[in-house]
Request: fold
Amino acid sequence: MSHDFEQLRDPDEFVRAAMQWHFGPGTGSPFWLDRARSLEFDPRTDVRTFDDLSLFPNIVNELRDVRVEDLVPRGYDGDARPVGVYESGGTTGAPKKVVLLEDWLTRNLGLWADSLKEHGVVPEGNWLNIMPSGPHLAGPFTTRMAQRSSSVVFTLDMDPRWVKRLLAEGRAEDARAYAEHVIEQAGHILRTQDVRFLMTTPPLLQRLARREELVELVNRKVDTIIWGGASMDADTRYLLRTEVFPGTRLIGNYGSTMALGSANERPGLGDDDPCVFDTLSPFITYTVVDPETGGRVPYGERGRVVMHHVSRSALFPNNLERDEATRTAPRNGSGGDAVADVAPVATFDDTKVIEGVY
Reply:
């Protein structure tokens, strides 16, 4: 079995090869080799197709306490080159931890750059990253994207967990003050620096849009706004694209730390079209399911989003996300579904979902 299975593009062939890697005694991670003993199937013989990923239990809650070294496949033989440990937002309890390895980050950045080019965007120029700092994946990802073109990233202090805590405790005024503190940091950068790309969350973009001076600066300086990390409804998207920021491109981005990456919205969508996200198949894929049965809903129907990450660096299959979406046909016959009009569910794991600034 070749360790270079990431070159395979047939989803079923790719998944079969990945199972040999992640559950081979000499190549699999300590976490999965140990976990395999309690599975009710043998991944190396029973997982034959992309759809068979649904056999796996959702193990992401186990990532709250796992020793991160145990997530690195042994097949790297000491050459894994971890970029860092990144965490979920902590919306439904203690954060879940993943290890990002250099080879996957490099591949994901390449896929991201290809997607931006489809939108007519050449990712050269300075970035302003109004996104969570600390152990959140978006910040380091943007920094590395800028480094590909010898550009710089302007960052700021932002702690989304503090805002979520404030909102959960009913301290909405404190949460608003914190969000304005973040926008003030961004404003200083926009006034004094050259910024070509702006990456932020929908709640913060809407706060920025209320400041006439900052709107003028963005329309004059910024080529592309990429939003993600929280949902944006169709009416808000239309207003921002057509009236508030007509001088820029507005591109949605959807993903998850537990999927170790994200995908940009489908190129060529009109202002009135639903915002559709395609997968980074075969590495990151989505399915849209009925949460009661686990079966896929028909195209055009809404259901819960399940994400799978399968690469040489990691295996996180069958993760039921806290989002619902409309199931949409994917482009290019890739594995899984495309998703449209993504929105959070009200509760997840019996916990109220609070998006906050994130």
